[in-house]
């Protein structure tokens, strides 16, 4: 019987995993500079954690949930996104407590699941690197979060980026806008897609996010949320734009942007790339925003929050063709000539690894030529060659693969301190 991976999933094989590790390590290092700490939450949660937060009329809840009843008849969902689970954990672990320093800055990375139609950059199991920061409503934090996302993408060498920002304002702004939108859309009701007819009653803002081309044409002339902001929400958005300029971050305001999840208010943003990987079309790699009601929604005290999620597969599509410094370095390749050297080679690689070096050897009793070829292919810095005569003499031949310099060394010195030996060969 032939087994194949489920549709919309991918195997990350050894030749690709170094890229993933590089992306993850770069993100960790950057997040730590901004004082974020990692949080790991379950890959599945109670269905309601997502249904109550993503929005009743969102595509995620209506079409894309991987949900099931477990053997104890609990309604479970594989997480479609990271935010709701992190908020649930924030509340459950009472990180809102006054004794805890605010903002509480967290990051995470891992798989998410959405039943979507698979295509390039869209999978059913995909991976996000995300951040969530709680307890501070200061616009400076909104801008810092956006700046951090841009910094991260720039570190990967991404250049053709567009930061689109918008605001959904506060409750009062949104209610006024909702009414304006209903007034505008009602005359078009019969022309709207079935989904949007439903949304018109339940959540008209969602229509702005419709993927139906006719809906999109209709909403082109829809009123803009920016004309319905309360003075406070307006001032907040002005501050955001000012602070982006202070940091020299280019942005465009996209007043039709609503995002696919319902929990946002005030700042929302998307970072897009128009790389060849997406046929030159603007594709969102990273997206996020502020969600000041979500902690309360999941049972905590009203606590502001903001964050973003970055699609790792989409990021990798863009950086795939760039030469990234991702090759894992190999310090030493031990070339063993003749079967008798195998035990010594085993001891050598073991010792070198214990001394902190990345070391590899031949396990197939191959000819020296083949072993040197492998050493070059693995970009080994040094080779340590041991044949039967060296075995008797208790020596080996150390070679710097970059300069070609060679030196006879004693095994005792290798076992004592290999770092000293390579220093001596470099100084000569
Ligand atoms: P989102 O816009 O639904 O936001 O997803 C964020 C990113 O995840 C997208 O921009 C995209 O790169 C990637 N992504 C989403 N769906 C797929 C898919 N099916 N296949 C591949 N990549 C995908 C969120 O998930 C929010 N939790 C972001 C956030 C964090 N907002 C505040 N904090």
TrEMBL record:
Cellular compartments annotated: Cytoplasm
Any one of the GO CC terms: cytoplasm
Keywords in alphabetical order: Aminoacyl-tRNA synthetase, ATP-binding, Cytoplasm, Ligase, Nucleotide-binding, Protein biosynthesis
GO biological process, one term: histidyl-tRNA aminoacylation
Molecular function terms from GO: ATP binding; catalytic activity, acting on a protein; histidine-tRNA ligase activity; transferase activity
Residues bound to L-histidine: 81-83, 114, 128, 132, 259, 263-264
Catalytic reactions on record: tRNA(His) + L-histidine + ATP = L-histidyl-tRNA(His) + AMP + diphosphate + H(+)
Domain Aminoacyl-transfer RNA synthetases class-II family profile: 23-368
E.C. designation(s): 6.1.1.21
Protein biosynthesis in keyword set: yes
Predominant location category: cytoplasm
Alphabetical list of Pfam families matching this protein: HGTP_anticodon, tRNA-synt_His
Family: Belongs to the class-II aminoacyl-tRNA synthetase family.
Protein name, entry field: Histidine--tRNA ligase
Species this protein is from: Ligilactobacillus ubinensis
Lineage of the species this protein comes from: Bacteria, Bacillati, Bacillota, Bacilli, Lactobacillales
């Amino acid at each position: 019987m032939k087994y194949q991976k489920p549709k919309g999933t991918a195997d990350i094989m050894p030749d690709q995993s170094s890229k993933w590790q590089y992306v993850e390590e770069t993100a960790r290092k950057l997040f730590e500079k901004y004082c974020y700490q990692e949080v790991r939450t379950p890959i599945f949660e109670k269905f309601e954690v997502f249904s109550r937060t993503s929005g009743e009329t969102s595509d995620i809840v209506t079409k894309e949930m991987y949900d099931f009843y477990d053997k104890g008849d609990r309604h479970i969902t594989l997480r479609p996104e990271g935010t709701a689970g992190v908020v649930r954990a924030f509340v459950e672990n009472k990180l809102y407590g006054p004794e805890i320093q605010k903002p509480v800055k967290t990051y995470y990375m891992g798989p998410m699941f959405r039943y979507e139609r698979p295509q390039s950059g869209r999978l059913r199991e995909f991976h996000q690197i995300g951040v969530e920061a709680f307890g501070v409503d200061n616009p400076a934090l909104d801008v810092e979060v956006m700046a951090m996302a841009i910094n991260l993408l720039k570190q990967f060498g991404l250049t053709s980026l567009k930061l689109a920002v918008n605001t959904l304002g506060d409750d009062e702004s949104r209610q006024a806008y909702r009414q304006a939108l209903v007034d505008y859309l009602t005359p078009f009701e019969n022309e709207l897609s079935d989904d949007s007819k439903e949304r018109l009653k339940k959540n008209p803002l969602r229509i702005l996010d419709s993927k139906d081309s006719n809906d999109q044409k209709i909403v082109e002339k829809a009123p803009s949320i920016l004309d319905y902001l309360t003075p406070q929400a307006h001032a907040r958005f002005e501050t955001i734009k000012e602070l982006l300029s202070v940091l020299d971050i280019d942005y465009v305001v996209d007043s039709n942007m609503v995002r696919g999840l319902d929990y946002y208010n005030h700042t929302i943003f998307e970072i897009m790339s128009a790389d060849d990987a997406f046929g030159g079309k603007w594709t969102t790699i990273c997206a996020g925003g502020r969600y000041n009601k979500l902690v309360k929604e999941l049972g905590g005290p009203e606590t502001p929050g903001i964050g973003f999620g970055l699609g790792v597969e989409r990021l990798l599509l863009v950086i795939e063709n760039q030469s990234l410094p991702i090759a894992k370095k190999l310090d030493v390749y031990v070339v063993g000539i003749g079967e008798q050297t195998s035990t010594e080679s085993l001891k050598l690689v073991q010792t070198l690894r214990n001394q902190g070096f990345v070391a590899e050897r031949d396990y197939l009793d191959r000819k020296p030529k083949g072993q040197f070829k492998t050493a070059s292919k693995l970009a080994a810095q040094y080779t340590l060659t041991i044949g039967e005569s060296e075995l008797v003499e208790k020596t080996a031949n150390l070679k710097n693969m970059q300069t070609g310099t060679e030196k006879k060394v004693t095994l005792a010195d290798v076992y004592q301190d290999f770092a000293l030996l390579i220093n001596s060969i470099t100084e000569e």
